Amino acid sequence: MNALDFNRRTFLVGAGASAGGLTLGFSISDEALAQGATPEVNAWVVIRPDDTIVVRIGRQEMGQGTITGLAQLVAEELEADWAKVTYEYPTPGQNVARKRVWGDFATSGSRGIRNSEKAMREGAAAARMMLLQAAADEWKVPVAEVSVAKGVITHKGSNRSTTYGKVAGAAAKLTPPTNPPLKDPKTWTIAGKPLKRLAQDGKVNGKQVYSIDFQAPGLLNAAVKDCPIWGGSLKSFDAAAAEKMPGVKKVLKIENAVVVVADTWWRAKTALDAVKIEYDSGKSANLDSKAIDDMLNEGLTATEAFIGNQSGDVQAAIKGAARTVEATYSMPYQNHAPMEPMNATARWTADKCEVWTSTQNGEAALATTSQAAGLPLDKCEVYRMDLGGGFGRRATSQDYVRQSVLIAKEMPGQQIKLIWSREEDQLRGCYHPITKCKMTGSLDKDGNLTGLHMRISGQSILATIRPEALDKGRDPATFQGLNAGGAEGRLGYTIPNILVDHAMRNPPVRPGFWRGVNNNQNAIYLECFMDELAKEAGVDALEFRRKLMKDHPKHLAVLNAVAEKGGWGKPAEKGVFRGLAQHMGYGSYVAACAEVSVNDAGTLKVHRIVAATDCGHAVNPAQIERQIEGSFAYGLGAAMFQEITIKGGKVVEENFDSYPILRMDDMPAVESIIAPTGGFWGGVGEPTIFVAAPAVLNAIFAATGKRVRNMPIKNTDLRKA
Amino acid sequence: MAKLNINGKTLDVNAEPDTPLLWAIREQLGLTGTKYGCGVAQCGACTVYVDGEPVRSCSLPISAVNASQKIITIEGASGKIVEAVQKAWLEHDVPQCGYCQSGQILAAASLIKAKPTPSDEDINREMSNICRCGTYNRIRTAIKQAAAAVRGA
User: Tag placement on chain A: N or C end, fewer CB within 10 Å?
Assistant: First the structure.
């Protein structure tokens, strides 16, 4: 099948899935690019003769609403009719061929909008100027005399009008303007509005095609079991029985994995279960959660550590303190577990390798494909398909893409879809890293905080995943939200003597970027300990924080907002108790006020969380609300029940029966305060997750007098002593 | 060869008797709206109706279903209740990634059929499907609206 066939098929898949109206995102056809069937005005904007505006987007939709927000920003600068806006994904190969005209495809770190808005708004503004110029040229009038509203261009003097679709061809031939002026966000009429998402129809009628749904004539399916022992390897396997099973085409060894290729995935999986596999545990035979805990405990008091934030003399402050407070917290491994398990379809020949997959980073998937295929980038292509969730898993590692290409290489010319089972997804994750933290605080005789030492001990994500990003061995991302300065994640307290340091301890279990990343544990450690300090000082938790936040007005503003709306300081319903937390990360300031109750049996109920975010500019407040709610579901499920434990080097929790996910009955009411103060662009997909757990933990203390310092909460008996 | 009645048509299925209904639907019949999430009846992404009752098809072998039993998937689901649920889902902009929503919608329609005025407790008890994006509060609101629409309220 050549590229033309692919594009026709992709078009058919997309068209079939869009019976309700707006199209789903499908790849740009190479023919359209080459032959100019509908010429692009520029890389970002294509306008079809029927006035449909196609916005091209490098970032990836995975449920977070980024595509809708970016399309709104483009439509805003373009003065488009929103009802006519749709989108498509350029492929990573096209991005390489056009010198990365669409920029970075990585969709992680809550940067989908904030790191694309400038280039896309400028692209749209340039397109608008070109479209107006084309109309003015046609009418032979000065461009200053023409105006546009909702994609209709008008010349009042001669009472003429035309549409974008009619002049797009002529506009495409004009020289693009440089530095087009952008609108003041205060004048936005499409961006900033709570619009509904694009492409929702296929999600309610089963027609949306995720990469696990990819179909093609003659497609084979593969099931995989990689060595489940972290640090172990594949020793031997006996495939005699499996090879005779129905539908089986091949049993393969791919690096440390056994793979069965069959006509259907169920047959591949059934045959794989019949393969007798032996593993070599290597050095991990005795690796278990206790051994990892011992390793981290040693780091809590080790003499050497990387410094993240230091000022004054914290040891002197602690020595001279009227009172000191000490506490040790811990955060376990946690898995992403997106609903759609990892999967990718690949076809390899000696001169071309193609992959169809759901990824948070199409460019990384392309690079992975090229490396695994042994072919240069221009002989490889990745077709981006919609994701059944990402949460960082599909950003951290393209391991499933690598496997699919290596499998396809064993059967040249054959298109093969690899699907991981849920068990494989649990066993071969990129887990939220494991850390502990020893907190030491010093108070003077008046209860003022004079010093704070945060000793983090545990795993660095970058050391394993992106070692090139380490700074002389130090992992700067460990200190997310605890930094002295910077626009990304700044500590919101001024403490005269402070030391935040990290004893890096890296067990062989692979870590990854998990929604919120290191902010999650840092916010728990700091915000829960702030409550402990306030209690020791005999001061209200809000007042204690406020004294330290005078120089951090944006942090303080969101905290004040949730305190006010959450009813802090006012009586709650009988049996209901409140907790507060604030944090900054991914450029946004967030805070939460949680309300919980704990019954006599020790059962926790989170009733309501009031959340606030200052994300600078709010591109779509309705979608931000959904991200706040979603981040709480994700973060609370993790805080309440989720931990990945290790035995014999292997993950113990293999499916949702042992790795519980938050469901409807545990979802609290969420009230959102979206308070953008302008002048900066912060993320929204992750930030609010930071404050979900600490606000609830502080409320649990208020309810029970118990400090839960070890996650998840289910491991602590909450019954009143 | 097994025969299954899916979305009103009787179809031949070339699969071993212990093949889960989910994989027969997805791989033999090419209907991919029914999703694989866990394979152990925990998440509900694979929900279909068998004779009008919601079933987690990942854990039901095709040998346990006979040709006279009517299987309905999201692609074939219709009628006043399902359509009211789908409409409410779009009005409240429920889906995020959308992967679990086929199952959520069929579970919701079943709930409304059994409880025309579902209480919060009914929703908590009956809506056990997993959504990793966390659309639960919108699902709750949309169920109440759909139920009201069906009642003609």
Answer: C
